[in-house]
Amino acid sequence: MKRAHVAAAGLIALGAAGPLAAQGYRVRLDTRVLSASYRGLEEDSIPAGQAVTGAGSGLVTPDGYAVSCLAGMTFCRYFRAGPKRSGLPWTAGADATLWGFGVTGLSVRMQARAASDLRSEADGEWPGADPTVQLLEAYAELARPSFTARAGRQTEVGRLGFQGFDGGRVAFRQPDRGLEAVVFGGWGLARGIAVPVTSPALNPLDDFQPRDRQLLVGAGASWSHALADLRGEWRHAVDPGSSHTVEHRAALSATVRPLARVRLSGGAEYDFANAWWGTADAALTYYDSRLTATAEIRRYRPFFDLWTIWGAFSPVPHRTVGGSVAVLVRPWLTLDGRVEQYRYDDAEAEAPLAQTEDDGWRMRVGGRVRVNDAWSLDGGYRYERGVGSAERNIEGGVIWRSGDRVTLRAEVAALIRPLELRFSESHARWYALSGDLSLGPRWRLASDLVWVDESRERPDAAAVSWDQLRVSTRLVLTLGSDADRLPPGRRRPRVDQTAP
Amino acid sequence: MNTRSVISAALLLGLGLAGAALALRQDGFDHVEHQNLFPSCTSCHAGAEEAGAPLWPTATDCATCHDGTVEERVTWTAPRETPASNLRFAHLVHRDSVAARLPADSAPPECAQCHATEAGEPMRVTRGDPAPCLSCHARAADHLAVADTACATCHVTLAEARGITEARIKDFPAPPSHARPGYVGSGQHGREAASPVRFAGQTQVAASCATCHARDFCTDCHVDAPETASIRALAADARSLAIARALEAPPSHAAAGFGGQHGGPAKASPRSCATCHTQESCTVCHVAPATRTVMAMHASGPGRGAGAVLERQPPSSHVLGFADRHAQVASAEEKSCSTCHVRTECLDCHRPDPGSGSQFHGANFLARHPTAAYNRETTCADCHNAGQFCSTCHLQSGLTAGRPLGTGAKYHDAKTSFLFGHGEAARRTLESCVSCHTERDCLPCHSSFGGRRFNPHGPGFNPERLQKRNPEMCRACHGLQIPRRP
Fold first, then answer.
1. Considering only alpha carbons, which residue of chain B is nearest residue A199?
2. B376: domain range?
3. Which residues of A, range 141-200, sit inside 8 Å of B by Cβ?
4. Are residues A119 and A162 in the same domain?
5. Intra-chain end-to-end CA distance of chain A, in Å
6. How far apart are the first and last CA of chain B?
7. Is residue A40 in a domain?
8. Assembly ipTM
9. Interface contact flag, B300 A324, Cβ < 8 Å
10. How many domains are there within chain B?
11. Looking at beta carbons, which residues of chain B come within 8 Å of A242?
12. Backbone φ and ψ of A197, nearest 5°
């Protein structure tokens, strides 16, 4: 039995045993399995003498692959279709919240996941299946009207990202004034995953990696009012070995409601280490019962921790101007659209041999038709002409629902995606079937089947097929004590809809 | 006129005549035909005047004349029981009560006052007309617009009128008040139902309601039926459900942004909400832990109406593309998010499961992710670790650089000599670059240790600041010989 199985069994046992000690609990056990097969590229070579001149006057292999022959090298290199690969990632997760320990406001929360590629191959497991066990969150919380204290593995959510850490967090609040202040600190986790930055799983290419986990401290303050919500946050992470800064940023977020039906939201990040502004945005939204329209400006600049060298490579931001609109044309018909234009700042690295686009735009229009309570249709068209790559994508789907119990969806999509930096125009057709079945109040079963028929257009033999078949199944069991779960609402034929 | 039209017209005419004949037979006794035979109504209807006497004549009385000799025999029989009605009228009681109010020398009310269709023709009779009743009891108001207390003068409650069928109840005429805008939704009917008359220490339901309605009718909608005195005061009667009913949202619910701002009013006046909303109605959207206001609502159960059956509706901000931009709102209004979302939902996407299908991006995102990622439709790094997620997959797909740049196959072959001019693309989309490349690929050219020493620093680079914050980053390329800006 693989380690993952043992870990999963342990997690499930923990989830099942936990409630015995608490008077109130909610547990979700979740297991998924995905079967996928795909084919990538593989680098190959031929002796330089075997390369021949192709139709476009470039050098190719005898069977038509364009090759790269460097002066002085005895071999010419090229990409051909790689071997067919397959993966069977299986995960088991447990998500438990326990309370009622005799102390008012005390609760314990834990969410963990075990993952393994059941069909792992010699040269690597399915992305995300390593490490085998991930503890996403596990903390004890004491919540009182004026404060909330939390200790353990947790995540801090804000404009600066979804930051995980092992440590403590205290939030003080004055509910009548809408004020809240937060301080937290501990040992940080890596970005986008619940493992430390020292984990080998984060370094598949075997390159730079910090030796120690970063120490993280942060603070935030917020004010909430009927007219506005404001929030400021600050984070500082240091390498404990050298005391050097890994991250030092602050951000401000705001939502203002100056008029009925109007909302202005936005914010900005500032990077103290690089002394520059990071991502920022502002959006003005008008909304009523039939129309929502938003005008938006955005500036995006990536952030890199200082244990990498990438921040010193001066990533430049791009600026976006756009808007979106959603209209309830009829009670059964919704139309929406979104368009934005973006332009990169001057990178100050223009080279005549490899000039690239510096601006682009993207748009999407779509609609949904509710035929009746059971059937609905949706569809959309997406277009992008931009830097690095572009796309034209049309998609549509039909959904059938039977109350809250069964949802079935079928969808198709067609995509053309040319790349700017490689001879490769992808033509993909996508067919998907998915179903979601509620097996009573506790069990839920979901499944997807996706077939991607994707080919690449190239002037040489490297126009390989990237077809994929993916089948996934998910089973969820939710348990809860009566103290928390309210009795199910009595369903009846709808007399009138009073939803606001 | 063709044959078909003639036949159709004949059929219609025949049906009409048959209907008319049936209508004429409804009464069964032709009073006008007999008007000269009987000196008074009480000759046959003695019960209207005499206690203990029958209200109807007997078949023997008819046979006095209709004996087959003087007149042909008839088969008329008196009704076995009084027709089903919700009238509380009784002739003798009414006579005595009127007599008690009138001066002693006044004549008692005559039958014709209620039953004659035209003045002076006492035997041209009809069923009792409410108009004469109203002339005394309701000061000439329209029947359905009488004062609330006036209904009970003539009518018993629906529950007491056991003989009335659901078909008749369904066709009860509605008073004009019921057509007023907001009569249901703004609580007018509730205020009118709460009778100012208190009996035995309890508020009683208005008599006008009880005439046509019973508790079942109210309970079908009212969640707070057990707590509402005027509903409790009504008798239970399932026949009352024959009358059509519909929940109507109060005007406040139509206000812009009500969905996001109803918390304040609900907190201030939970009883008002509890009229139509159960706890379950709230928890369709409000996730645990339930707020005090939610817990103050009644849980659904026997004796309570289902109330407003809601569907979870996303707020106005959740339009096309909101998922990609939700951090804007979530950063400033975290509490607002936690009204409907629990932490598990955040983690499902922000810490994606390798076995998951397409829960966030949609089914066909895999094919289009290079485009979306290259120009960052959204921030990928909030949910995906470039090393663990992007690089691992690109490595297995053969998309990472397997050897020093410039010595392998050309992947970026659409640009002539891309390697020598990649700086512009790299500074623009460095995150995309590092999903396939590592520092090792760049340092041979961009570090002090390599032979070429191409300066990678560009706009915004602040060497003093970075060196002060983290000199190790500088040492990766410069070793201990970190240059100083002149």
1. B388
2. 336-454
3. 155, 157-159, 161-162, 190-195, 199
4. no
5. 53
6. 113
7. no
8. 0.88
9. no
10. 2
11. 472
12. -65, -15
One-letter amino acid at B9 equals: A
Please identify, among B76, B94, B128, the residue that sits at the C-terminal boundary of a domain. Answer: B128
Altogether, the residues listed in chain A come to a count of 500
Amino acid at residue number A147: F
Contacting residues of B for A388, CB less than 8 Å apart: 370-371, 374-375, 425, 428-429, 432
What does the alpha-carbon distance between residue A163 and residue A151 come to, in Å, rounded to a whole number?
15
- Which A positions 359-378 lie with beta carbon below 8 A of chain B? 360, 362, 364, 366
Query: Could you read off the pLDDT of B357-406 as tens digits, one per residue?
Result: 667 887 778 888 988 898 888 889 989 998 888 988 898 888 888 777 87
Q: What is the mean pLDDT of residues B27-37?
A: 76
The whole-angstrom separation of Cα A304 and Cα A308 is: 7
Q: With respect to residue B408, please indicate whether it lies within any of the assigned structural domains.
A: yes
Instruction: Please indicate, yes or no, if residue A272 is contained in any of the structural domains.
Output: yes
Domain interval for residue A99: 1-34+81-125
Mutation for B interface: A37, A65, A180, A205, most B CBs within 10 A: A205
- pLDDT (tens digit per residue) in A14-47: 444 444 455 788 899 999 999 988 888 899 999 9
User: pTM of this prediction?
Assistant: 0.76
Partner B contacted by A204 (CB < 8 A): yes
Q: Look at residues B273, B278, B270 and name the one whose alpha carbon lies nearest to residue B298.
A: B278
Residue by residue, DSSP assigns A158-188 as ETTEEEEEEEEEEEEEETTTTEEEEEEEEEE
Q: Does A151 share its domain with A223?
A: yes
For residue A435, count other CB atoms closer than 10 A to its CB: 16
Residues A224 and A273 in one domain: yes
Could you say which of A258, A288, A318 is where a domain stops?
A288
DSSP A3: H
Would you say A253 and A246 are in contact if contact means Cβ atoms under 8 Å apart? no
